[in-house]
Amino acid sequence: MARYKDAVCRLCRREGLKLYLKGERCYTDKCAVTKRNYAPGQHGTNRKKLSNYGMQLREKQKAKRFYGVLESQFRKYFEIADKQAGITGDNLLRILESRLDNVVYRLGFASSRPEARQLVVHGHFTVNGKKVDIPSYLVSVGDVIAVSEKSKASNKFKELSEAAKGTVPQWVSSDSEKLEGKVVSLATREDIDLPIAENLIIELYSK
């Protein structure tokens, strides 16, 4: 399974904002963006004005890095979104939000999307009672995502779920006692709080 293996803090510095890839560390003074708010590399402090293409490219890279998706898969999501009825940009973000690793993060069972991805791969979650270890699995309305029976003995999920109370988005419901959540509806653009200008991504892929 292909994935980014270098220091993730470099990604945040490259985009010039926090992507929240390190969980609690991102909220402390140890955050790389707080300490060194410039792009990595020898010429990182010399930021140049971006062209229209440059802005479109950076927006796509930002979205990919928020959700931990590589280029080929991101392109497939765009093609699916483009064929669906409605606004392509909204469709694209809705598909990304429907990934199992993102839903696990949104439910509060992980402190970051990378951690959620790892926990899913290690088989800590079930969907409708069946183990699913594929982070890119797309959930549907009515699906129940739960911590597996073997993993419920760990206090980690209980503590994370309790800490996430009040921050779970409206399109999912969470039960911290049962350590499970349900997809009430698919995410709308208003539900997604990430600073992504999806219109620039659509312009880039539509050329």
Question: Your description of this structure?
Answer:
This protein has 207 residues and is α+β, with helices and mostly antiparallel strands. The chain has 3 domains: 1-48, Ribosomal Protein S4 Delta 41, Chain A, domain 1 (Orthogonal Bundle), CATH 1.10.1050.10; 51-98 and 192-207, Orthogonal Bundle (Ribosomal Protein S4 Delta 41, Chain A, domain 1), CATH 1.10.1050.10; 99-185, RNA-binding S4 domain (Structural Genomics Hypothetical 15.5 Kd Protein In mrcA-pckA Intergenic Region, Chain A). 40% of the residues lie in helices and 8% in strands. The protein has 9 helices and 5 strands; from the N terminus they run αααααααβββαββα. The chain has helices at residues 9-15, 32-35, 52-67, 71-83, 88-97, 100-106, 113-121, 155-163, 198-205; strands spanning 125-127, 130-131, 144-147, 172-175, 180-183. The chain has a 5-stranded antiparallel beta sheet with strand order 2-1-3-5-4, covered by helices on one side. A hairpin with a 4-residue loop joins β4 (172-175) and β5. α3 (52-67) crosses α9 (198-205) and α4 (71-83) packs across α5 (88-97). The longest helix is centred in the first third of the chain and has 16 residues, at 52-67. The chain is globular and about 50 Å long.
